[in-house]
Specification:
- Keywords: Electron transport, FAD, Flavoprotein, Transport.
- About 30% of the residues lie in helices and about 25% in strands.
- It has helices at about 15-25, 45-50, 60-65, 70-85, 95-105, 215-225, 235, 270, 290-295, 305-319; strands at about 5, 10, 15, 30-35, 55-60, 85-90, 110-120, 125-130, 135-140, 150, 165-170, 200-205, 230, 260, 280-285, 295-300.
- Helix 4 crosses helix 5 and helix 6 packs parallel to helix 10.
- Bound molecules: flavin-adenine dinucleotide.
């Protein structure tokens, strides 16, 4: 069985859910080999074994782990040259996308972005890609070299396949570009909420929310559902939330189980970032708002009345 390299995203040894999804996808077409970098890399091993990694390559050398992006590319390109896997899977996060692009250039191959499916035939790995903001799915392959695949979070459900992986320490390759260094420990944004592109519930607010202060309501709904907070560009441009919360063509692409759009009209550029959500709920006072065309459930009403009522009802049912 051909090897599929999976780059592991983790925070201090806690493996991200999209990584487990990528491992699940890799297992379907080959033997997953996980590559983990960082001081806490070893803490990831048992979790990676639980999700079917046949082997875990560990790199704890600060010469690469304290370097932004370039160090990861150095390690991955060295491993690819040594082992010639059938493909490299990288989570399609902001950092993952940058790694994927740089790695493909280094390998002289190509990137298949926003992958939602993977298969193998005589010609090698084929990938189903969600393009045009997820409105179209195409099947693509890279014709030269080892394809680099950026795997879209929430495209598949992570499924466990417990095993005990081989563990292989690897050294940092010498003499690479190490200009940009991590100078402070990374901190999780969002007050302990899940990351926007990993969350299974996203509650998003738009211009209809009215002010930065009013976003407390959106955050409260997100918190009772254990979700992340998103926003339309109108809300981030107004400075009500940081741009990292923006969902859409020029923001994050999310595919949660549940997306609740509050006071968002449903402009095509917003829809491009969330239309693959499994269930979409829209709350808008305008019954003609385009968001209702893609919503599974629509509530026509003032969000300042509807959202508190929703929060009360969710809490009541939990008691
Ligand atoms: P509006 O379109 O103004 O809609 C506000 C909605 O709130 C209305 O439907 C209104 O009926 C409703 N409302 C008002 N008050 C209430 C209330 N009290 N209760 C309930 N409903 C209420 N946009 C993005 O979101 N993400 C992107 O990535 C993005 N990228 C872009 C890229 C380009 C190149 C361009 C040109 C635009 C982009 N936009 C993006 C902007 C996009 O076109 C829209 O302008 C934006 O999405 C509108 O945000 P909105 O729905 O919050 O605001």
């Amino acid at each position: 069985m051909a090897e599929i390299l999976v780059l592991v995203e983790h925070r201090n040894g806690t493996v991200s859910r999209p990584t487990l999804e990528a491992l699940t996808a890799a297992r379907a077409v080959g033997e997953p080999v996980a590559v983990v970098l960082g001081a806490a890399a070893e803490e990831c091993v048992s979790r990676l074994g639980e999700y079917g990694a046949a082997e875990v390559l560990l790199c704890t050398d600060p010469a690469v782990t304290e370097v932004v992006v370039a160090g990861v590319v150095d390690v991955l390109s060295t491993v690819v040259r040594e082992r010639t896997p059938a493909a490299v899977l990288v989570v399609a996060s902001a950092e993952g996308k940058e790694i994927a692009g740089r790695l493909a250039v280094r390998l002289g191959s190509g990137v298949l972005t926003d992958a939602v499916g993977i298969s193998v035939d005589d010609t090698g790995v084929r990938v189903r890609q969600a393009i045009f903001g997820g409105s179209t799915v195409v099947t693509s392959r890279v014709r030269r070299g080892v394809p680099v695949v950026s795997w879209r979070p929430n495209a598949v459900r992570a499924e466990a396949a417990p095993g005990t992986p081989r563990v292989t320490p690897i050294a940092a390759p010498p003499g690479a570009d190490r200009q940009a260094r991590v100078t402070a420990t990374r901190v999780a944004a969002g007050g302990g909420r899940p990351a926007l592109n990993e969350a299974s519930v996203v509650v998003a607010g738009g211009r209809g929310v009215g002010s930065a202060e009013n976003f407390a309501l959106i955050e409260e709904l997100a918190d009772v559902l254990g979700g992340a907070v998103g926003a339309s560009r109108a809300a981030t441009d107004a400075g009500w939330l940081p741009h990292t919360a923006q969902v859409g063509q020029t923001g994050a692409t999310v595919s949660p189980d549940l997306y609740i759009a509050c006071g968002i009209s449903g402009a095509i550029q917003h829809v491009a970032g969330m239309q693959t959500a499994k269930t979409i709920v829209a709350i808008n006072k305008d019954p003609e708002a385009p968001i209702f065309q893609i919503a599974d459930f629509g509530i026509v009403g003032d969000l300042h009345r509807v959202v508190p009522a929703l929060i009360r009802e969710i809490r009541r049912r939990r008691e």
